[in-house]
Fold this sequence. Notes:
Layout: H1 2-10, H2 14-25, H3 29-36, H4 40-47, H5 55-65, H6 69-85
Helix pairs in contact: 2-6, 3-5
Amino acid sequence: MKKAAHNKLKNTPWGRALESLREETGLTRADVSRRTGVLKDQYYRACKGKFGPSVMVVDRWLHGLGYTWDDWAQAFEGEVDRKLATPKREPRRAR
């Protein structure tokens, strides 16, 4: 059961929202690592959905980027809207 819940988290756009905030600041992942004391690899893996960081770690990233939880929530909402607006391919018809 735990694994299924984790797989659902991997499909959420929260990591892309965090990455978009980082890109807005012009910082590299290494810069974020230096500012927060969290390994660069952890940040990368979390943004790709391969690692579920704690709330405290995400808070450190947001603080290091100069953003608040509200800023992240707005970026997250934009990612969700973008994902929902992406048209899905229609299934191929059987011949």
